[in-house]
């Protein structure tokens, strides 16, 4: 068989595979690569409890008879989901976002939410997407699958370089292209760790309005600020003109094994024949041909967890929030202890100190390619992610991403020892030997 | 917002919506429309038992430690799934299909399996798909989403008109197109109820080999033969040249609420750079950008049900199989009682007697459009599906599909009384009045 869709040969799709394979090949390495949530508090025994709690909600709160409860869990169901009302309540409680539950589509993880939106927005080959660069590789991969080019927008000191954003939009339009939306992760972005402050969010919304540009706000990490950092309202909470499609995940706040995410799409869509519909309903039509509906059982588990905590994931994640904040603190301190400043205040390597989330970027004075990662795994027993995977193309970048979400305090210390040994080794090797196999 | 992907205005996507809306609007109507499985034997209490059974399998059969059991259920997981070995065992036990578990991708229902295959096969605008017509609307909808035209292949007395199939392939190639595959449901097809006998299957495989055409075999109903009907080997069981991609569903044999299906893709793919890979691995790369992986919890529920019955769904569905066979018998007898033959052996209406499955097609001497369905629901309290939804275009067809999967014996009797009243009424109305609003 030959001649499959070209996305299959694209770095966006092969990246994910390569990174997974390295992780599987070195299962005993300490992983600063994995973005998966902390698992110390997972308990298989909870699952039945969550199912029971959700079934009780259907019976006691919604008044379903036993047959309807069974049907809701076992049969095909509503395309837009069966926990939409609980998601709406969660958004109100934790994010002060007020939305009509009908504008929510529960999806198979946030990935499907992104995929549905990109599929809808890509009508023909004039359409392009903007994305703040470096970008989550799952966004780029989904865009490749629907043949939607992604134009990178520069990261500025405020998270997004708005001058570059406007320039990109104007340049695309001048070339006959249609910039459909800009993808942004305003809270503790993956991979950069950067956040937008309140003023930057307001300016971004103003630019989006002025340029008639949809914003795709992806918010998997917003519940996890660093020690002492304040949470900032989401773009969707500030959105007065339905300029924002909100992409939500329960992978980090409930459990990835459910594969339940959602989107909020309260925009009005006008079809060619003049009929007006809700964007969420159009996206549900696409979903009906991709996955039909999200597993009712998986939704019930997430619904049960929401109900156990009054629909507050802030409350549900108190221990996890403390663990992530502690890990970020330990990682920053551990790096500082191993790479002290020179007298002039500079360091041999540098890193950002994010205001929260899972990720921190270390900048080094040499290119970081996949061969170096392989060497790190094999010889030093430590995994991380080369930053070039988050940029278009495959040119190595002098930076690597560290994730703190799936390591213990002890692992952070020994992982940093291993990383420091790798970095020392890479600094001492002659430049020619540093990049075996790279272009 | 305007200018979304054109599939959103396509009958394939609007059909599903319309049919769902009618069903929701008339919840008390007797439904010969729903293809959902019989629900009398569903029991919410079973879910926790299935989860336990699967966790015990991970621990006792696969030797996982408790931490790995928890991680398997709670965390992100293998893109190709965690019950692939059980699916392979099920195929061996129930279908005598022998496949390497590595060639299996567990998907979010059979719909995602179809979607992934069509996405991979549609590389550019020369690619086309063939499908035996009338066709399951979910296939057509998925094809629309990846901009893949579907060329209808005629249904013949043997299920597929092979002369037409070859003619279609040759005509497409002569026009510079690439027919990538032919979609077929060889067992009790939705919507036609038709099946291919063993000889027809062998001939279809020969034609596929001669024409270098992939066959997409969709088999949701194969476990449900009518009374006395024998099961026939699947195309995949007869497939000696990796000509068949097998699409599997657990919606009818386990529970739709899990949204777990799978595909078997043991073909070798050669990329432009000469590297060879397994088609299943290429499809998994696409899946990683659509849904990441199938819910581990949903897979565990299905896995537990498989394990409870020695991986035999034939064994697991003894009661369901008897119920479906009984319902098919009652429907045929009920139609015969209400619409006796004339002295010349003909009937005012006619229907096929399928060798199994969920569906039977009634042919009537008047066009069956959506307005008639709406009238049937509102005035007669009975739902069914106009056959035109399974053909390209929206011209009404003189036929309707009846499903026996979600009705009781009593409902079949009263549903048929209502249907007979509707048909008598439609026959007595002048032709002009029969088709309000239709073209």
Q: Topology, please?
A:
Two copies of one chain form a homodimer.
Chain A: H1 11-25, E1 30-31, H2 46-61, H3 66-74, H4 84-95, E2 104-107, H5 109-121, E3 127-132, H6 137-145, E4 150-153, H7 162-174, E5 178-184, H8 198-211, E6 214-218, H9 235-238, E7 244-249, E8 261-264, E9 268-270, E10 276-278, H10 279-288, H11 296-308, H12 313-316, H13 318-338, E11 350-351, E12 359-368, H14 370-380, E13 382-383, E14 385-386, E15 397-403, H15 409-428, H16 431-434
Parallel strand pairs in A: 1-13, 3-4, 3-5, 5-6, 6-7
Antiparallel strand pairs in A: 2-8, 7-8, 9-10, 11-12, 12-15, 14-15
Helix pairs in contact in A: 1-6, 2-11, 5-6, 5-10, 13-15
Name the descriptors:
alpha/beta, Aspartate Aminotransferase, domain 1, 16 helices, 4-stranded antiparallel β-sheet, 2 domains, disordered C terminus, globular, Aspartate Aminotransferase, domain 2, homodimer, 15 strands, 43% helix, 439 residues
């Amino acid at each position: 068989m030959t001649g499959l869709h070209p996305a299959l040969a694209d770095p966006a799709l092969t990246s994910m595979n390569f990174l997974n394979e390295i992780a599987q090949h070195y299962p005993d390495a300490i992983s600063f690569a994995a973005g998966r949530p902390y698992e110390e508090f997972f308990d298989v025994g909870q699952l039945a409890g969550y199912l029971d709690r959700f079934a009780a909600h259907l019976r006691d709160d919604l008044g379903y008879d036993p047959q309807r409860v069974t049907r809701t869990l076992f049969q095909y169901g509503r395309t837009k989901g069966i926990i939409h009302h609980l998601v709406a309540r969660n958004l109100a409680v934790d994010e002060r976002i007020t939305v009509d539950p009908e504008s929510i589509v529960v999806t198979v993880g946030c990935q499907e939410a992104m995929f549905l939106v990109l599929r809808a927005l890509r009508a023909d080959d004039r359409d392009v997407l903007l994305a703040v660069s470096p970008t989550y590789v799952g966004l780029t991969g989904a865009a490749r699958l629907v043949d939607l080019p992604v134009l990178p927008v520069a990261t500025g000191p405020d998270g997004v370089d708005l001058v570059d954003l406007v320039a990109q939009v104007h340049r695309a339009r001048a070339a006959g292209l249609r910039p459909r939306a800009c993808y942004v992760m305003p809270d503790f972005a993956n991979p950069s760790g950067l956040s937008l402050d309140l003023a930057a969010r307001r300016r971004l919304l103003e630019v989006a309005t002025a340029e008639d540009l949809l914003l795709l706000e992806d918010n998997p990490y917003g519940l996890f600020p660093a020690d002492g950092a304040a949470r900032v309202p989401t773009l969707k909470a500030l959105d007065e003109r339905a300029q924002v499609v909100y992409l939500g995940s329960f992978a980090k706040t409930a459990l990835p094994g459910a594969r339940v995410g959602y989107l909020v799409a309260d925009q009005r869509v006008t079809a060619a024949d003049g009929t007006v519909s809700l964007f969420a309903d159009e996206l549900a039509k696409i979903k009906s041909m991709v996955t039909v509906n999200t597993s009712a059982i998986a939704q019930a588990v997430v619904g049960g967890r929401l109900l156990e905590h009054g629909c507050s994931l802030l409350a549900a994640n108190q221990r996890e929030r403390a663990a992530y904040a502690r890990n970020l603190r330990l990682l920053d301190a551990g790096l500082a202890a191993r790479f002290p400043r020179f007298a002039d205040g500079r360091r041999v390597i540098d890193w950002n100190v994010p205001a929260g989330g899972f990720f921190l970027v270390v900048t080094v004075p040499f290119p970081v390619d996949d061969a170096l990662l392989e060497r790190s795994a094999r010889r030093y027993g430590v995994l991380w992610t080369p930053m070039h995977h988050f940029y278009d193309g495959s040119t190595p970048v002098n930076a690597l991403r560290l994730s703190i979400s799936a390591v213990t305090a002890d692992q952070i210390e020994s992982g940093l020892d291993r990383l420091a040994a790798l970095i020392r080794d890479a600094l001492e090797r002659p430049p020619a030997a540093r990049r075996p196999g790279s272009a």
